[in-house]
From TrEMBL:
Keywords: Signal
Family recorded in the similarity comment: Belongs to the GASA family.
Organism, as annotated: Nicotiana attenuata
Signal is among the record's keywords: yes
Name the record gives this protein: Protein rsi-1
Domain of life: Eukaryota
Ranges that cross the membrane: none
Signal peptide limits: 1-29
Amino acid sequence: MAKSGYNVSFLLLLSMFLILLTFTNMVEGYNNLQPRDCKPRCTYRCSATSHKKPCMFFCQKCCATCLCVPRGVYGHKQTCPCYNNWKTQEGKPKCP
């Protein structure tokens, strides 16, 4: 009986860890990407715009530098500070 209780406790702890890991990834967006991850993340990020070529160009440039792409197709830039704070010479956001 004690061994069974140990297994249940271990599984509960493992489940809580996996839930926390999943929640952290959802909150932080796509942080800590590898450069190879940029194109698929940017393809999704730019999927809702009618200006796909410039969106993809700047998203991939930002991703390569910041190794982060905010979640979703719009907004949520606060989850990637580097991506959010990179501005053009005119002071406008560089990253889509």
